[in-house]
């Protein structure tokens, strides 16, 4: 098991022993029911990027699932930086960047859905591990995506706007793509029940056609991605025309360019979808321009 710095309810575990000593109750509702929330961010130059926005979304997710966070977002921010301080003290990690996953569960208790079953308050865990961004070679190759047969959660079932630890819908879509032996897919996209493209398993999707950037709207039932919002702002400030509209999978096949956005992938090209080459099969000029502008927003 990969070692990490782990913060369990304010107790930070040493790197060498964290995997063995970081423990969560088998009666935790996150383990039993996927009754948990999470956020993922990373550092650049030793500082968390857009951490405040991630914590604001954590609050919004908690409201959507009627969870009491138990601690303020300022508390979570301070605990993340306290764990980061310990991370950077590890030999060889002084100048490494960190991946940070913040997980909050409703708590542990007796078997049952009722809140009266809870015997502990909200529990939180933070996992910090070394991270590196995509290489130049990976960027040039781009992602090969499959549009899964499995559809995205309906908003009235499990709203994708809530960043829930219940990720089985996404996991099954990913495994569907990974099990296709005829194609070398990197990941999957999901459509909704109406056949409109929504998002990927861990990322938002954009395409470019005749100079116009297009991405699905939030009301279709997608995560309000922090990187998505950031990229929309960058695109608008850079003078690009961007539309948030519903579209079928065929629009992606006809695209001049396509790219995904996420905290870890940043802006990353998509060069093939369902075995079809997108544009020239290389990162397009608008994708590359946006990626360059994105990198300029990273704090020194």
What does this structure look like?
The structure is a single chain. With 300 residues, the chain is of the alpha+beta class. The chain folds into two domains: 5-131, 2-Layer Sandwich (D-amino Acid Aminotransferase, Chain A, domain 1), CATH 3.30.470.10; 136-296, D-amino Acid Aminotransferase, subunit A, domain 2 (D-amino Acid Aminotransferase, Chain A, domain 2), CATH 3.20.10. It has helices at 18-21, 29-33, 51-64, 73-87, 136-141, 168-178, 226-237, 249-253, 285-296; strands spanning 5-8, 11-13, 36-44, 47-48, 97-105, 123-131, 143-147, 187-191, 197-200, 204-209, 212-215, 241-244, 257-262, 266-273, 276-277. A hairpin with a 2-residue loop joins strand 14 (266-273) and strand 15 (276-277).
Order of helices and strands: EEHHEEHHEEHEHEEEEHEHEEEH
DSSP helix count? 9
Catalogue the unreliable spans: none
In round numbers, the mean pLDDT is 95
> What is the total number of structural domains?
2
Can you tag this structure with a few keywords?
single chain; about 300 residues; alpha+beta; D-amino Acid Aminotransferase, Chain A, domain 1; D-amino Acid Aminotransferase, Chain A, domain 2; 2 domains; nine-stranded mixed beta sheet; six-stranded antiparallel beta sheet; 9 helices; 15 strands; about 30% helix; globular
Quick take:
This protein is α+β, with helices and mostly antiparallel strands and 300 residues long. It folds into two domains: 5-131, Aminotransferase class 4, branched-chain amino acid transferase, N-terminal domain (D-amino Acid Aminotransferase, Chain A, domain 1); 136-296, D-amino Acid Aminotransferase, subunit A, domain 2 (D-amino Acid Aminotransferase, Chain A, domain 2), CATH 3.20.10.10.
